[in-house]
Amino acid sequence: MITIKLFSIFLLLFCSTIDAQLQEKKIDSLITTEFNDPNGPGGAFMISHKGKTIYRKAFGKANLELNVNMTPDNVFQIGSMTKQFTSVAVLMLEQQGKLNVNDPISKYIKDYPSGDKITIHHLLTHTSGIKDFTKMKAISTIAQKEMKPEMMVDFFKNEPVDFAPGEKFEYNNSGYVVLGYIIELVSGQTYEDFIKKNIFEKAGMTHSYYATDRQIIPKRAYGYHQKEHGFVNKTVINFSVPFSSGSLMSTVDDMLKWQKALNQNTLLNPAETKKAFQKYRLNSGEEFTYGYGWHLKDINGSPDREHGGSIFGFKSMGVYIPGEDIYVIGLSSCDCHSPTEITRNIAKIALQSVKK
């Protein structure tokens, strides 16, 4: 009887190991369809289940010129995943009683055109209608200039609006630049300092930064573009331009710490956290699938929270499935390799695996 029980346990463990190995090979194969050049720019991917890392690998090179292999510890620019941090910073200030998401932005930026009709909520949900500065032809004139937040806001604030506040959902980087400026005005700190002291340090994110090309960043992954003749170093921009809409850097491990901090209410109380992850409605009553800094979609019928990022030389994607506590993060050091569909497909595999 004991022998049969022991054999059954051994068989169960053996089958679990075999299944895990098969799943790992499946995920490896999925990633290498895109990251197929071991001598080209690389990426790092991680899967966690219930806070425990179950897959963590890197592919390709972190630096082509020095022939340095990518590791899961490398630091990447995360582009628009920055918006998650900006939205949580706003909610932290609301939690402290320093602002309200229903406040008009004219309360903080007196001379903003029609600022009495545009609320912080509109900015957070991409429903403000203000002009997205990344779509303006004049963007090339400031891309490499040091821009104060006020200068960035001045750059686009007098442009004609695309629609009335609350009328449509249209992804908008300008809204999140305005939010960064409001964070500075309300907190009395720079955006960089606020994020570092109130989020990175509290969450234990010791390898996350406000992006810089001058500061020495240990284990920095270098960014690349792909041209007809091969890879080239990324275009240089001044990070004061994307600012609070896309200027943070992180690692796969730190992004898991971020997810844990959100789950454990380390940064926000449950009421404020709920605001970030609920769907909202347009003026017409139509619901749209974006909260505050996250797209709210589903993976094979399971609700998820997701967001990607793209900035010169880098792409990123994170998917969280709250029902199963699955987090998948993919970071790429070439904007020629998108981790978006790979990360979503990995999440599907992980979801199927835990539901067996």
Automatic annotation (TrEMBL):
Start and end residues of each Beta-lactamase-related domain: 37-335
Key words of the record: Signal
Signal sequence range: 1-20
A Pfam family annotated for this UniProt entry: Beta-lactamase
Tree of life domain: Bacteria
Keyword match Signal: yes
Protein name, per record: Beta-lactamase family protein
Species this chain originates from: Chryseobacterium herbae
